[in-house]
Design brief:
The chain has 127 residues and is of the alpha+beta class. It is 37% helix and 28% strand. The longest helix has 27 residues. The protein is elongated.
Length: 127
């Protein structure tokens, strides 16, 4: 039995040139009513859920085209919206920043401080 894996990315080999494939994607975005929240710039296209149906966990599809020996390779990845990643990184950096003084105290006090010659004085911590 195969293991359960999430595959949020996939590639397709297209028998078209990169410019022709991108032209067809742009044409489909412009002509199809079902594709409302999409945009294509350069060799990339972005697809998202309609604003009225969008939730915090709604996916985002990013498509990139590149040259391949047989024509064009389409690389597509499902991921959270960019705002979700920005929020995640903000929380990550704030947590790291808040834990940095504690990490310095642990590293430069006790046996670590004696090993390093007591180079760190924590008089500022009493302020």
């Amino acid at each position: 039995m195969p293991s359960l894996r999430m595959l949020p990315a996939f590639t397709l080999d297209l028998p078209l040139g990169k410019d022709e494939a991108m032209r067809r994607i742009r044409q489909a975005i412009a002509e199809l009513d079902a594709i409302e929240n999409a945009k294509a710039v350069g060799d990339c296209a972005e697809f998202s859920v309609r604003p009225e149906e969008r939730r915090f966990w709604s996916p985002h599809l990013s498509v990139q085209l590149s040259d391949a020996p047989s024509g064009t390779q389409l690389y597509a990845r499902f991921s959270p919206r960019p705002e979700v990643w920005t929020f995640f990184m903000l929380v990550y950096f704030v947590t790291a920043f808040l834990c940095l003084p504690e990490a310095c105290m642990v590293m430069f006090s006790g046996s670590w401080g004696r090993l390093l010659g007591g180079c760190c004085s924590f008089r500022w911590a009493a302020l």
